[in-house]
């Protein structure tokens, strides 16, 4: 079945000409209407077409070009990203893109780590979340009009994960009604905040509040860093770029020191905690409410794991259809490498995961907006669940997406190692997501702690009702149950798949809880007992998060079925969901075998079913990546071009290499010629 209507995306960057015949054939053989799946992914036809208009505008605009990015120095890359920021602002005005959603769409289409990312992603949300109505009235119009540019300055040279250990102090001076910000040690230097080094005029600084020698905990403060006239740092402020990084060259991650910098009292963001003129301190309604922007960003990061992985898979799948190696038998034509089972086994689970994460993203967005609605009504009851769930999902999704990009790169052979494949920079720019907004391992501890607590409560109080995704912790009888998927067919039953994931998660939680008790019985206090089970806690958090992802995928398909989605689309989504479920059981088989939940009676049909699923996905693979609807601009890859003219594009892009500007190598005269022409 061919697609119901054609995508409206231009073929940019690729070398024009007749499309690759294999890709054309693959596209013609899809079993489902690709366009309908695109509408499903992006929230309907109207929204898809809107996104395409923006994507087209960006892709055809020379200011947003990416093709020469590999040949620019760090400084040039930073300047170029500022040029893009200016143009982004011009386009907002020109095309009347004033809504937050339009601007987000435009930034996503530009597809670069712009030095205003922190301004829109954390600075403005912190003012919205933590500022009083008056503070919002004062700063939001300036920030939204880019009259000031801000960032989120929390991490320090010596302190990142452990926020309570931050050293920057904000001491309240009652006599002048000011806070005095100071960096008392080298390790108190703010270090890492994006756009802090050179771009930001302001920032929200997290500092420990001290009033009359009393420590009141870490709070957010609005601080101006640079003159709005000439961009020079203000008195008492030392600020700069932290230097070369693994990648992320367009972003000026910065350092910042305060030497007794005074700010007015109303520059503490006081929505939840307040300092009155006389120095009276009012505590916030929840001790972690000032961490809310991080929870927001973790939810955002979960959403982007899908699109990032989808890009890598799109590149690898298209290339694997164009690339041919070896005939099966002599005299036959060479095979497309995607026909090889190993290539399918590497790529299709990642394709399935990109779709799975799409539904996880929808789920966490919904959970986050419910949480915000509650918070506005001073109801913080959902915060622990929101924090724990987002911490676990942020870790699982970024870990899998990071490893997945590298798998895609390796599966493209030598050309995957070329930066022109787009995969090395996708990987290098993405992997810090495992670290920023909470180191993944540290985040896993948060979720595991939450699960252990709930498990303990459920054990102590039989009949206790726990929230939806953790309700399995009530059912310790589940531990006695075993898998009964003894045929390939039974492995396709979502109830059985979910049972396996629930059982594994519960087992690991129960095991951790038992070990905690055992460590304490050996004489350790609770703190040291927790230290003794930390690597198991990471496993617990991952196991639970896998369950959440699968549960959402299964539920989403059920909802789509109920809302009348067509059979071919449901069929292909179900196949992807099955592969996701079975692949990650296969990947962690030890967990399931260790406690006798599975035996070889079940693993043989499991492996066989996975092979069948790979075969089932093969004819739809190109259509499934096409449905993500990326422009060539967004992919930035010679291997992933929509028209499949991979070799032509690689060859043309390579010509831009500065070394190719002259026929004779730079340095030839000094370094090569002397020994070539030296007498023997
Ligand atoms: C739209 C965007 C576009 C573009 C963006 C562009 C680029 C983005 C790129 C990068 C941006 C990066 C930004 C950053 O990295 S900002 C810095 C982020 N830093 C962190 O994430 C630090 C991680 N550490 C923490 O979050 C906490 O310190 C930690 C949770 C590890 C521990 O906190 P603390 O020591 O204060 O608490 P505990 O004693 O451990 O726990 C007490 C209690 O509180 C609960 N808790 C902790 N955090 C939260 C929270 N956020 N919400 C709710 N509850 C929380 C914790 O679970 C404990 O509960 P209980 O066990 O019940 O007592
Ligand atoms: C690209 C990038 C952008 C960033 N942008 C910003 C920004 O805009 N604003 C900002 O404020 N910050 C920013 N950061 C900082 C980032 O938030 C921190 O690096 C992150 O929170 C991790 O903290 P850390 O560096 O202190 O790691 P550490 O906590 O020092 O972690 C190092 C290792 O120790 C382990 N570890 C730590 N604590 C424990 C524990 N209790 N038990 C067991 N193991 C532990 C970790 O798992 C990890 O393996 C950015 C970082 C990067 C890389």
Automatic annotation (TrEMBL):
Cofactor names: FAD
Lineage: superkingdom: Eukaryota
Active-site residue numbers: 437
Binding positions for FAD per the UniProt entry: 155, 194
GO molecular function annotations of the record: acyl-CoA oxidase activity; FAD binding; fatty acid binding
SUPFAM superfamilies: Acyl-CoA dehydrogenase C-terminal domain-like, Acyl-CoA dehydrogenase NM domain-like
Localization: Peroxisome
Domain (Acyl-CoA oxidase C-alpha1) ranges: 291-452
Bias (Polar residues) ranges: 1-15
One annotated Gene Ontology cellular component of this protein: peroxisome
Pfam families given in the database record: ACOX (PF01756), ACOX_C_alpha1 (PF22924), Acyl-CoA_ox_N (PF14749)
The keyword Flavoprotein belongs to this UniProt entry's keyword annotation: yes
Segments for region (Disordered): 1-21
GO process terms (BP): fatty acid beta-oxidation using acyl-CoA oxidase; lipid homeostasis
All copies of domain Acyl-coenzyme A oxidase N-terminal, residue ranges: 34-149
Record-stated family: Belongs to the acyl-CoA oxidase family.
Protein name: Acyl-coenzyme A oxidase
């Amino acid at each position: 079945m061919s697609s119901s209507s054609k995508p409206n995306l231009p073929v940019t960057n690729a070398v024009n000409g007749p499309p690759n015949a294999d890709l054309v054939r693959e596209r013609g053989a899809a079993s489902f209407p690709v366009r309908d799946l695109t509408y499903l992914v992006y929230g309907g036809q109207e929204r898809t077409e809107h996104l395409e208009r923006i994507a087209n505008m960006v892709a055809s605009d020379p200011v947003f070009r990416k093709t020469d990015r590999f040949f620019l120095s760090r400084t040039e890359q930073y300047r170029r990203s500022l040029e893009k920021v200016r143009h982004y602002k011009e386009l907002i005005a020109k095309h009347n893109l004033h809504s937050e959603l339009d601007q987000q769409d435009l930034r996503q289409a530009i597809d670069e780590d712009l030095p205003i990312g922190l301004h829109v992603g954390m600075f403005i949300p912190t003012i919205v979340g933590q500022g009083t109505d008056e503070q919002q009235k004062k700063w939001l119009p300036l920030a939204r009009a880019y009259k000031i540019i801000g960032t989120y300055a929390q991490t320090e040279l010596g302190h990142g994960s452990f926020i309570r250990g931050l050293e920057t102090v904000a001491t309240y001076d009652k006599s002048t009604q000011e806070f005095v910000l100071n960096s008392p040690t080298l390790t108190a230097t703010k270090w890492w905040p994006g756009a802090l080094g050179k771009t930001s005029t302001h920032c929200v600084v997290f500092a420990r509040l001290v009033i009359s020698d009393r420590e009141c905990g870490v709070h957010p403060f609005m601080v101006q860093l640079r003159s709005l006239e000439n961009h020079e740092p203000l008195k008492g402020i030392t600020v700069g770029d932290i230097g070369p990084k693994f990648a992320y060259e367009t972003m000026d991650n910065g350092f910042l020191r305060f030497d007794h910098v005074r700010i007015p009292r109303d520059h503490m963001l006081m929505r939840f905690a307040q300092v009155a003129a006389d120095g009276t301190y009012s505590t916030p309604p929840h001790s972690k409410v000032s961490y809310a922007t991080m929870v927001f960003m973790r939810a955002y990061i979960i959403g982007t794991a899908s699109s990032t992985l989808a890009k890598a898979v799109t590149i690898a799948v298209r290339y694997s259809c164009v690339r041919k190696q070896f005939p099966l038998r002599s005299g036959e034509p060479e095979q497309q490498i995607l026909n090889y089972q190993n290539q399918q086994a590497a790529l299709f689970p990642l394709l399935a995961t990109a779709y799975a994460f799409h539904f996880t993203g929808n789920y966490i967005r919904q959970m986050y907006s419910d949480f915000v609605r509650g918070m506005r009504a001073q109801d913080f009851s959902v915060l622990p669940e929101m924090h724990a769930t987002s911490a676990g999902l942020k870790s699982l999704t970024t870990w899998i997406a990071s490893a997945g990009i590298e798998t895609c790169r390796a599966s493209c052979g030598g050309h995957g190692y070329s930066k022109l494949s787009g995969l090395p920079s996708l990987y290098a720019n993405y992997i810090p997501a495992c670290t920023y907004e909470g180191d993944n391992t540290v985040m896993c501890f948060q979720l595991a702690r939450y699960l252990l607590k709930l498990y303990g409560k459920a054990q102590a109080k039989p009949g206790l009702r726990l929230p939806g995704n953790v309700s399995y912790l009530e059912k310790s009888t589940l531990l006695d149950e075993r898998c009964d998927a003894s045929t390939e067919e039974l492995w396709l039953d979502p109830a059985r798949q979910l049972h396996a994931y629930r059982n594994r998660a519960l087992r690991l939680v129960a095991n951790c809880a038992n070990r905690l008790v055992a460590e304490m019985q050996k004489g350790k206090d609770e703190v040291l007992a927790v230290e003794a089970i930390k690597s198991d806690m990471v496993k617990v958090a991952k196991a639970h998060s896998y369950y959440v992802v699968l549960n959402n995928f299964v539920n989403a398909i059920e909802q789509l079925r109920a809302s009348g989605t067509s059979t071919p689309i449901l069929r292909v989504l179900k196949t992807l969901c099955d592969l996701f479920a079975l692949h990650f059981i296969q990947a962690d088989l030890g967990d399931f075998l260790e406690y006798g939940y599975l035996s070889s009676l079940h693993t043989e049909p499991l492996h066989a079913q996975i092979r069948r699923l790979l075969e089932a996905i093969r004819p739809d693979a190109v259509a499934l990546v096409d449905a993500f609807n990326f422009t060539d601009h967004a992919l930035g890859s010679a291997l992933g071009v929509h028209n499949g003219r991979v070799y032509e594009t690689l060859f043309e892009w390579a010509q831009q290499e500065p070394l190719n500007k002259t026929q004779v190598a730079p340095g030839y005269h000094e370094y090569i010629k002397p020994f070539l022409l030296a007498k023997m």
